Amino acid sequence: MKILRPKSEKGSVLICVLCVILILSLIAGNVLFNCITRYNVASGQVRGWKESLYAAEAGGDVAYAEIRKTVSDPTHAFSTWTNTGSGYSYSPAAFGRDNLTTSVAVDPFYYDSSGNPWYRIRAKGVAPVLELTRVTMDDRINSSTRGDSLLRKVDFKYDHFIAAYGPNGDNVGKAIVGVARPQIARRIELVAAPVTPFGDTAIRASTSFYGPGSAGMVDSYNSANGAYYFAANNPSDPHYNDSHSGSVALGSADFTVKGDIYGNVSTNGGAVTANSRIHGTIDNTVPFTIPPYVLPSNLPLPQASPNKINGNVSLTPSAAGTSAVPNYYVVSSYTGSLTVNQVGTAQTYVDIHVTGDITGSIDVKPNVHVKLYFDGNVAVKARDIVNESGLAANLQFYGISPTDPTTTQSIDIQSPGNYSATFYAPSAATKIWGNPDITGAIVCKTFYENGNASWHYDRALNLVGERTDYRIASYVEDMR
Prior knowledge:
Blueprint lengths: L9 H63 L9 E2 L4 E3 L10 E11 L5 E12 L19 H5 L7 H6 L17 E13 L7 E8 L6 E5 L26 E3 L3 E3 L3 E2 L3 E2 L15 E2 L28 E4 L11 E5 L5 E4 L7 E7 L6 E4 L3 E7 L3 E4 L3 E3 L7 E5 L9 E6 L4 E6 L3 E5 L4 E13 L4 E5 L10 E10 L2
Parallel strand pairs: 6-8, 6-9, 6-25, 7-10, 7-26, 8-11, 11-12, 13-15, 14-16, 15-17, 16-18, 17-20, 18-21, 19-22, 21-23, 22-24, 23-25, 24-25, 25-26
Antiparallel strand pairs: 1-2, 2-3, 3-4, 4-5, 5-27
């Protein structure tokens, strides 16, 4: 009997396995190809999304630097920018490996009570889309979903922002504007606010401090709550919290204290320790510098007269003026007595530039705001500084720093008398003699008081005074 052996099927199995492998390989290859394509597109757009913000922030930094120049170097501020009439605009050349671009617009949109402009910075950054001109993984848009393509807002052919909102985002001038190449654009808006001189500090000196006298003191109050009275030793007083801001800041280690300081003390390398005279915190690791002060560049044209203050001079401006556009006078000599009068019932604003020394007196009537800029020195008695409102903010002295940094101005105030005023003179050596009662603040190079004067810092000065710098007060991104 013949036995039939089964035929071998090994060859058929092998062919089936190879076919399966081929099919799986084709599927895997197709998936990998699609993933790589989408990854490259997505990664390129993500890179463009990030780089466009970098470009916008770079433009914001350039604008912020120019705004700071309006204080430190006004002659060259915005010197290479285009004046648009209401502000400035700038579009520098492309930069970076991927040829990023930025365009910036700066405009002053608000003037505070001291006439300091606040600036709005609007910066647009553009980065090219370097990969395929296609959208990415998720293009859905409905009531609950916003795909990542919509988030990134890629401009393949047209600028979507101008088409939807106009070039300034205010729905004015909407138009279909083509783009030279696929791009991603992001926009940011910043607000640059002025830094004012005082900031809860009664006395700020860069080089040395000596004072107050053993019977003197430094404390604070807030004129918004009424006239000054001593409340620093009564925690139950409703204005106690405003009484301990009579702070002293020194930019060196040369610090000597004799009287009471109801506030904080900071030095740069000093050896001040806790004692019964200092009623606040002590920090000996606070370095700072005070830049030279220059005459503001935005003052209006000066009035024809007076151009000297010799003898008795009564000044009543022809108009009240404003904090931004005050009545401005330039005088070459100030040895007499000046009275500055109110215009009718209006708040009156007067700025005076003294190109020499101040050795005369001043009487500022209520509702009058005076700023005195001086190139030389000040040598007066406390009784010569009369501010009838009692508000230190209404009478401000500014010492213009000498062009030679080795030259030191001097502010010398003798007894008798009391006064309410502020002094900002970074290059001045200040000396207070006797026992005047002072309401206000001072910024100077050196401070020395050998008497028993009392200082009362008015916390209403925190946002008052000529700008000394700028800070970024707000940052938002326009995500439309």
